Fold:
Amino acid sequence: MIERFWETKSLKEMSQAEWESLCDGCGKCCLHKLQDEDTDEIYHTAVCCELLDLRSGDCSDYPNRFKKVPDCLQLKPDNLDSFNWLPPSCAYRRLSEGRGLPSWHPLLNGGKKHKMHAADMSIRHKTVKEGPDLDPADFIVLWPLEDVD
Ligand code: SF4
Structure:
């Protein structure tokens, strides 16, 4: 049985391995976002990073992602205050807001993602790859803002 470390430790107290294991691999943070210059409001789009695997939701080159995609952001405990751009279902955002992990999270399902996909909480079947002829403003969507327990 897995130790429920996320219930006993704060995000800042977690080991690197524990921190990494919190990521559900939904892929939503790899969607392009647009920000209104006047209101700062963030809009999610269905356009994703070139490295995102559209079926699994994983990064296809995780070790080299910062080299290949210079504006890829690394989530770290000391960035906690800036997590509001993450989707509401993101484990890091949920824990930072005291909401716990949802029942479909892979850590509660033997490391498997099937319940996450079944709950429609991943990017699977809903995204397009970025490209020179594609304007993310034409692909603004609301589904990344959905969350279920
Ligand atoms: S949104 Fe959060 S949980 Fe989902 S892939 Fe990104 S970092 Fe991981």
